[in-house]
Amino acid sequence: MFSDFCTEDKSKEILQRVCAEYQQGVLTGDLCEDLCVAGRVEYKRCLYYENGKKVMAASWRGVPVVLKSKLENFSSYEALALLEYQDTAGGEEELSPLDVVFYATLEIKNSLGLETGTNLTLPRLWGQKLKENERTYSRAELASLWALLQQEEYTFLRVLQDLTHHVAKILGSCGHFYAVEYLAAGHAWDQHIFSLDELTLSPSPSPWSGQEKTITARDMVPRVALSFLEMVEHFENDFSHSLHLCDIKPENFAIRKDLTVVAIDVDMAFFEPKMRDILEQNCTSDNDCNFFDCISKCDKTKNRCGSKRKNSNLQVICEKIFRPWFSPTLLGAKAGLPLQVALQRAVQECAEIDGGEDAKRSWAVRKQLQDLLVELIQEDTGNQGEGPEHKTRRVHTARDQDGANGRFPHPYPCF
């Protein structure tokens, strides 16, 4: 839909402008030299432009990357007030690493809605590196860092990539553009959601048997589903505040070659403090309290939405990803196998639970899903040596026993 604006000429013109400003000393970053001088960054194609956001595919030293910026021009970002103060002070005072930490921490707090006292602040992640450097930073470095920190997605990914492997990694930056690892994204139209064709999966040791095996599409689905469950548990329990995903769809996730699920579009991901602020709005009915995939209830006595989310990441993933994945329609003859029937029922229960209100039941459902997926992988691994006759016979027997008569659910910084 943005093809008229997302053109090769426009993309190359934007990158040329970035390089011109790099040559002038306006901006910098660890990607700039390769992009603008050494020619080690090869532009591939424009991916999309939307509301000023620019996204392009490129290759950096032979590694596929995605170049992103929330705004097209470096000058469109707010200038760092500290640099303006330095100008008015006559340039006599130099910025210390602690100055950088302080101002960057405030920006992260504002961007993510976190308090500076939590364990997700900049000093914990970058402060030690800054102290070890024991040097001042150029105007281009500080201006570039400030432009990056004004981009919520950059801030989110940069902070979390040191704490979890379930978000895309930032590989480098040049001015206001940053490079993110290129991953095989999901597709709503693909019955497996993630296509094996986009991955180079060599034989790898099976965690269940210790033997090497080639991962097939049949094996991939339960393994990726397990990674989704791990991601949900990680986002809920392993940070200072729960992390809410309010736009859950296949296109917003990707997988690495080891089948780890990765959140690649985090524009609609919020920590608990910011989530509460978003949900707590005026209302006349529960429908007024729906913020995409994050919903709460309307207190009609106060005409105010509750600040606590009613549903959960797990419930929405079960509803929008797992239920289509494990539906009888896609499973075909396998849908009648006892293990598949149990999994379908567990997914259905998971999709209907209000996980935000019943944490104990939500944990039990997640544990049941995890156990069933592990058992499914073990079963598939054990059946690899079976002949086609035996497999057909097993399916037929299971369908005779359980049937399908309506019993199944519907289907950097620069330094």
Word description of this protein:
This protein is an alpha+beta fold and 415 residues long. It has two domains: 1-182, no CATH class; 188-402, Orthogonal Bundle (Transferase(Phosphotransferase), domain 1), CATH 1.10.510. 43% of the residues lie in helices and 15% in strands. The protein is built from 14 helices and 16 strands. The chain has helices at residues 8-23, 32-38, 81-88, 97-112, 122-133, 139-149, 152-160, 217-237, 272-279, 313-325, 328-331, 338-352, 359-382, 388-402; strands at residues 41-50, 53-60, 63-69, 170-174, 177-181, 184-185, 204-205, 212-213, 243-245, 253-255, 261-263, 269-271, 290-291, 294-295, 298-299, 304-305. It has a five-stranded antiparallel β-sheet, sandwiched between helices. Strand 4 and strand 5 (177-181) form a beta hairpin.
Shape: globular
Structural class: alpha+beta
Summarize model confidence as the mean pLDDT: 80
Tell me the number of strands.
16
Strand order of the largest sheet: 1-2-3-5-4
Cα(first) to Cα(last) distance is 38 Å
CATH architecture of the largest domain: Orthogonal Bundle
Strand content: 5-15%
Question: The biggest beta sheet, please?
Answer: 5 strands, antiparallel
The run of helices and strands is: HHEEEHHHHHEEEEEHEEEEHEEEEHHHHH
Calculate Rg over CA atoms: 25 Å
